[in-house]
């Protein structure tokens, strides 16, 4: 059951990611990204990371992507025009992608050579309580630094978006 | 019994009940609105218009499914079903009663009992905005597009104070599991005042903030700007007809049921009775049913219309029978929690309709200003205050 679910949602994620790149229309691309994020949330859930799964659903697909879609709709962006392919990209694009994939997979298999296969349901520390505890004890400094970073970003957004007052 | 078999069985019970409630909610809304405005409401199809929902369903099913030219076909088709799907699935994690034992099978009343139930509901209702936004965009109509845009802006804005309002009762009950949240509100302060978050837990402000945000999240008056008739024809669903329109309609009502059930679970103590069972709380359902039956019998004896003599009498008999059911030993365990949950959620739904009959629509800038300058700071202050109280208590 777990394996079937994993295969299905992994496929959904991959198909969504490929479709994100191939789709001509911005709305289609954005919705492909939503499907990738929902599929990832299910994968997190299968691994036992319940809180991350819910956060993925609420934050990424529920809030951030809604804003993306909102902006696309507001600008009423039409379908993309095909850009003229450069000579170099036409010949080297596919081989370079293949090399990158081979390189990445070899690095992953080497660095995790003695890793065992994931057993679904074996991990039980993914609830909100456990995540919160780790966040406020072991990872307190990175957590606070991130919050300051976000605060700076908010201040920057307000400054940039503020209307000029004469 | 097998887990999967039990789940299928529970879904087989819950799904028709939900769909029936959705259909009759329209009837209830039209009746209540009519009485608010001193009208009769639907009264032609069946006694007191009780068969109106069935007539509506037949009409919507057999109507021509007209697709305007120049719409984006795929998204135009997808949008209503997306909206309906997310609205209906959110209901599956709501607990409507305690863990019970029936015929030797121990099970919880409610379908899924998961540790992140509340977050899942927030996530699913947040996804529902795609249905509305896509409908507005794919219709290729400026009114629809404006409706979709308004809806997404409004839902994202009101999600913030709503999440903050939800967070403060969570600080008190210390769990995200809906069943544990309800169990955390069991008991009575001084033996008589219910220990619900909105009353004994002193979370009345977050309850009110949540309720106001729920109006905006479900696109209801006074925050129904996405479908403001005098400005946008009918907003995001202008170009829809037949079953696709019905899907949006059902999604809206399913969202209302979800919002009211979540409020019941979080703030009104779920299935716990309003006064302790030892002090007669278990007799309240029966007494209420008998009272309503008495009122109906009175109207059957003094009919305003000739048909009332039969219809009022029959409905009165049904309600009196229901009152007896609440005291039958085995069924009691099942029926009483259901009664309390349904009556609290039902009262909140009544408030939704009541507000629709009395409060005028906001202007769009008022709506946004209200969310960001009033509700958001109020929810933040409430959360801060609750956090201090909880911290002081735990020390």
Give a summary of the structure in a few sentences.
The complex is a heterodimer of chains A (166) and B (395). By secondary structure, chain A is mainly alpha-helical. Chain A is built from six helices and no strands.
Structure keywords:
heterodimer, A: 166 residues, mainly alpha, globular, B: 395 residues, 4 strands
State the major sheet of chain B: 2 strands, antiparallel
Proportion of helical residues of chain A = over 70%
Poorly predicted tracts of residues of chain B: none
How far the N terminus sits from the C terminus of chain B, by CA atoms, comes to 45 Å
Portion in helices of chain B: 55-70%
The number of helical runs of chain A is: 6
Task: Name the helix and strand elements of chain B from N-terminus to C-terminus, one letter apiece.
Answer: HHHEEHHHEEHHHHHHH
The radius of gyration computed from the alpha-carbon positions of chain B, rounded to a whole number of angstroms, is 22 Å
Counted up, domains of chain B total 2
Strand portion of chain B: under 5%
Quick check: average pLDDT of chain B? Answer: 84
Main sheet properties of chain A: none
Write up what this structure looks like.
The model of chain A has no long low-confidence stretch (mean pLDDT 82). Chain A is mainly α. The termini of chain A are far apart. Chain A folds into two domains: 1-77, Up-down Bundle (Four Helix Bundle (Hemerythrin (Met), subunit A)); 127-166. Helices cover 75% and strands 0% of the residues of chain A. Chain A is built from six helices and no strands. By secondary structure, chain B is mainly alpha-helical. Chain B has helices at residues 3-36, 52-62, 73-89, 117-138, 142-173, 178-183, 204-217, 229-232, 242-267, 284-301, 308-325, 329-358, 364-394, and strands at 99-102, 105-108, 188-189, 193-194. The chains are: A mainly alpha (166), B mainly alpha (395). Chains A and B meet through α2 and α3 of A and α4 and α5 of B.
């Amino acid at each position: 059951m777990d394996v079937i679910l994993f295969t299905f949602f992994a496929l959904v994620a991959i198909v969504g990611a490929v479709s994100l790149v191939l789709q001509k229309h911005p709305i289609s691309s954005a919705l492909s990204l939503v499907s990738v994020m929902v599929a990832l949330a299910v994968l997190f859930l299968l691994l036992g990371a319940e809180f991350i799964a819910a956060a993925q659903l609420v934050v990424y697909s529920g809030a951030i992507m809604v804003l993306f879609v909102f902006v696309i709709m507001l600008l009423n962006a039409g379908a993309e025009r095909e850009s003229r392919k450069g000579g170099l990209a036409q010949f080297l694009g596919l081989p370079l992608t293949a090399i990158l994939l081979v390189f990445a997979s070899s690095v992953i298999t080497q660095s995790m050579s003695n890793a065992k296969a994931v057993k679904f349901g074996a991990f039980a520390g993914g609830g909100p309580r456990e995540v919160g505890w780790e966040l406020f004890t072991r990872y307190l400094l990175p957590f606070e630094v991130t919050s300051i970073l976000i605060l700076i970003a908010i201040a920057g957004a307000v400054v940039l978006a503020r209307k000029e007052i004469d | 019994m097998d887990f999967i078999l039990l789940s299928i069985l529970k879904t087989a019970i819950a799904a028709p009940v939900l769909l029936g409630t959705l259909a009759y909610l329209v009837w209830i809304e039209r009746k209540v609105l009519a009485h608010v405005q001193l009208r009769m409401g639907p009264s032609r199809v069946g006694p007191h218009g009780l068969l109106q929902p069935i007539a509506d369903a037949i009409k919507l099913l057999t109507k021509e499914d007209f697709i305007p030219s120049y719409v984006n076909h795929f998204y135009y088709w997808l949008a209503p079903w997306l909206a309906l799907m997310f609205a209906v699935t959110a209901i599956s994690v709501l607990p409507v009663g305690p863990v019970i034992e029936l015929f030797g099978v121990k099970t919880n009343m409610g379908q899924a009992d998961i540790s992140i139930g509340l977050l899942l509901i927030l996530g699913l209702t947040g996804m529902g905005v795609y249905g509305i936004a896509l409908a507005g965009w794919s219709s290729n109509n400026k009114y629809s597009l404006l409706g979709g845009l308004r809806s997404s802006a409004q839902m994202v804005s009101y999600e913030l104070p709503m999440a903050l309002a939800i967070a403060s009762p969570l600080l008190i009950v210390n769990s995200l599991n809906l069943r544990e949240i309800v169990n955390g509100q069991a008991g009575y302060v001084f033996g008589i005042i219910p220990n619900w978050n909105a009353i004994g837990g002193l979370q009345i402000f977050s309850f009110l903030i949540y309720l106001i945000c729920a109006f905006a999240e479900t696109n209801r008056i006074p925050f129904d700007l996405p479908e403001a008739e005098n400005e946008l024809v009918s907003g995001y669903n202008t170009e829809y007809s037949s079953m696709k329109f019905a899907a949006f309609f059902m999604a809206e009502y399913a969202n209302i049921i979800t919002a009211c059930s979540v409020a019941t679970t979080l703030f009104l103590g779920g299935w716990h009775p309003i006064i302790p069972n030892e002090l007669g709380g278990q007799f309240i359902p029966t007494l209420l049913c008998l009272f309503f039956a008495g009122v109906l019998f009175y109207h059957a004896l003094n009919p305003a219309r000739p048909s009332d003599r039969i219809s009022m009498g029959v409905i009165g008999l049904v309600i009196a029978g229901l009152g007896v059911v609440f005291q039958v030993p085995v069924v009691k365990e099942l029926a009483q929690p259901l009664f309390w949950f349904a009556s609290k959620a039902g009262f909140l739904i009544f408030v939704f309709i009541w507000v629709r009959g009395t409060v005028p629509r906001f202007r769009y800038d008022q709506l946004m200003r209200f969310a960001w300058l009033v509700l958001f700071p109020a929810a933040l202050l409430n959360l801060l205050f609750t956090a201090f109280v909880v911290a002081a208590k735990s020390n």
